[in-house]
Amino acid sequence: MEILCISHASFEKLGYIETWANKKNHIIREVNPYRGETLPKIDNFDFIIIMGGPQSTLRIEDAPYLLDEIEFIKEALKLNKRILGICLGAQLIAEALGAKTEPSPHQEVGMYLVELLDDAKGDPIFRHFPNTFEAMHWHYDMPGLPEGAVLLAKSEGCPRQVFRYSDRVYGLQFHFEMTESSLASMVENCLSDLVQKEKYVRPVKEILETDCSEINLKLESILEYLSNLSNLSNNTYIAEFKKEKIVA
Question: What local confidence, expressed as pLDDT, does residue 231 receive?
C-alpha cells in the first residue's frame, strides 16, 4: 500500500505511523507543503494521513498553503480515499467538508482521558475501545462537526475529539502517533505551550516520562482497519456493517 503523509512541522514527526508502515512493508511518501513542496497526484496513493502542526485555519493568512491542502482533501473525498486526520489534520478534513475550525474551550497538552459517546458503540473501530481511554493531546483549536459526520468522542477539555465521515474518513483531535522520541522533539520546539496557565496542561517532566506504548497500540488498530478496508463504496460498506451488527 502507498501512503501519503502531509506534514506541517519538522519537529512534529510521523512517530508510530512510520514504525507501523515499515513493519507492514507499506510505502510512505511524506510531503511538506510548509516548505513549499507541491502536493502530489492523489491517484498514486491508497491512504492519506494529514498530520498535526502549529498552524491554524483560524489564521489561514499565515499559512495559505493550507487552502491547497483543503482542496486536495476535497478531491480525495470525491475519490473515496481512506483518510486519517490528526489534530490540525482533523480540522483540515472538517474544513474540506464545510465545517469551520473553532477554538477549543481549553488548551490541552499531555495525557488526558477521552470519553466515547453513544455513537461509538456502532463504529467499526471505536466499538472495540474502552469507554474511556488516555490519549496524548497538544492543541488549542478543535474541528467543526461537518454535516453527515458522526461525533464519536469528547474530553473534559474539548467536546470534539473524534469524528467519522462515511466509513473511511476519521479525524482525531488527539495524538496516538507520538512516541517518546517525538514527544521530546515537541517539548524542545514548543516549550511555550507548556506554561501551566491552563487547567489541562501537564508538567514538562510528566510529558517527557510518558509511556506511549498503549496509545501506539490504539493507533495501530485504527491504521489496520483503514489499510484493510475494501474498495466497496461507502453505502455498500455501511449496509454490510449494519447487516453484521443485526446478525450479531
Answer: 56
Q: Rounded to an integer, what distance in angstroms lies between the CA atom of residue 148 and that of residue 115?
A: 21
Catalytic residue positions, numbered = 87, 175, 177
Which of 100, 57, 95, 84 shows the shortest CA–CA distance to 166?
84
Beta strands at 102-116 and 150-154: parallel, antiparallel or unpaired: antiparallel
Residue 241's closest CA among 139, 142, 150?
Answer: 150
CATH number for the domain including 214?
3.40.50.880
Query: How far apart (Å, rounded) are the C-alpha atoms in residues 22 and 28?
Result: 9
DSSP state at residue 37: P
Instruction: Provide the whole-model pTM.
Output: 0.92
pLDDT tens sequence across 73-86:
999 999 999 999 99
CA distance 10 to 33: 11
Number of domains within the chain: 1
Question: Residue 134 is which amino acid?
Answer: E
- Work out whether strand 102-116 and strand 2-6 pair parallel, antiparallel, or are unpaired: unpaired
| Residue with grid cell 475494501, as numbered in its chain | 230
In the block, which residue shows the cell 482497519?
A: 225
Please answer whether residues 146 and 185 qualify as being in contact, where contact means their C-beta atoms are separated by less than 8 angstroms.
Answer: no
pLDDT tens digits, one per residue of 145-164: 999 999 999 999 999 999 99
243 pLDDT above the threshold of 80: no
Residue 23: which domain range? Answer: 2-247
CA 62-64-70 angle, 5° bins: 130
Q: Do the Cβ atoms of 92 and 66 come closer than 8 Å?
A: yes
